Amino acid sequence: MKTIRLALISLAAAFGVLVASGQQAQVVSVTGSATVLKPGATAAVPLVIGEALPEGSVITTGKGASALIESHSGIQTGVGSESSVGVGAHSVSADGVRTAVIDLKSGTTVSVLDPAKRSVNNYAVRTPKGVAAARGTTYSTKVTLSSGGEAIVTVNTLTGSVSFAIVGGPTVAVTEGRSMASNHSTSTTLAAAITGASSDAERTAITEAIEATVAVVSIIAQAAPQVGDAPGQAQVTLLAVARTVTFAANEVAKTDPAAGQALVTSTVTTVREYAGSSSNQVVNQVSSASSAELQATVQAAAAAPVEVKTVTVTPATDTAPATISAPSNNTPTPTQPQPDITITPSPSA
Fold it and tell me: Which residues 6+ apart lie within 8 Å of 296 measured at CB?
């Protein structure tokens, strides 16, 4: 269960420092063996932090490796272990709308879109089965092969809403706290996706993607105050993601106590490892949102020793972090309405 998690949570030191310039994405962080094949090149070369990625570039990560790219300020995509990701169209229109398309050919991505910029975000992950598009959302997208060799796309939405347009099929709204797989064409709750998974591999893939998403957003929350990149929004996003996972764990625990316990333990541990000074507030929220059956598990995870990871960045400004208050109740946050996305729902190459 750790492979995808470790590949994505290793997005570290330079997170959030670089801002995409012009109409090209940039490499923010690289861990392990990752290469890029650029348009016109005959061979792939090692991926380098800070380099621009023109449209048509293809990133490939090895086992245990990861990469992070930033398309525009507030639009980041984490590339997981053993993944192949192409850089699609990137542009800024005359009225300021920022388009970014990521072609996920295989493996996993975690997309973090600043909801404060949703009015100008036009982002999509294009897959062999269709397009998962959003504007102000935190979600994971995974492409796997079934036993029969068919590509299956799974989308987990942690905040906001994703519009998943299936090639030759319907467009499905995958709202906050829900999951869907392309072979079912309908969405379900994260809890139902976990407990109703048809195999251990399917269940593990879902929980790994959730854990990876918590890790990436935790890194943003730690790095943002140091670089002056909307620290308040980063913390709000982390709180929202943690709440969504906690509510899913509550439901899972009703029928599978061990799985529910594993989900909250993973969330608390990951936040404590990677969220820095933000972790206490988030852990307190997980505790307050947890069911009575999970309270002891959350408390044990909060008390257990962890190796705190420090996200080292070069300060870009002297902007002071904003003061953020945790939500005052345990009601899930309302799903944001999802505007129409203008990216054509064609499959990736």
Answer: none
Question: Tens of pLDDT along 64-97?
Answer: 888 888 898 889 898 888 999 999 999 998 988 9
Q: How many CB atoms lie within 10 A of CB 270?
A: 29
pTM of the predicted structure, to 2 decimals: 0.81
Nearest CA to 218 among 263, 261, 266, 162?
266
Tell me the pairing of strands 121-127 and 98-113: parallel
Q: Tokens 């590339």 sit at which residue?
A: 79
For residue 219, the Cα-to-chain-centroid distance in whole angstroms is: 11
Token code pair at residue 105:
């050919």
Across the chain, where does the E strand assignment appear? 25-31, 34-37, 45-46, 52-53, 58-61, 66-72, 75-79, 84-92, 98-113, 121-127, 130-134, 138-145, 151-159, 161-166, 171-175, 178-181, 187-189
Q: At what angle do helices 279-289 and 295-303 cross, to 10 degrees?
A: 160
Q: Which two tokens stand for residue 267?
A: 């969330």
Residue 190, judged by CB atoms within 10 A of its CB (0-12, 13-18, 19+), counts as buried
First vs last Cα of the chain: how many Å apart? 29
- Helix/strand/coil for 135: coil
Cβ-contact 275, 311 below 8 angstroms: no
Residue 201 neighbours by CB distance under 10 Å: 10
| pLDDT, mean of residues 124-146 | 92
Ordered by start, the domain boundaries in the chain are 210-303
Helix (H, G, I), strand (E, B) or coil at 117: helix
Cβ contact 138:217 at 8 Å:
yes
Best CA proximity match to 101, nearest among 132, 80, 79, 123: 123
Average pLDDT over residues 119-141: 94
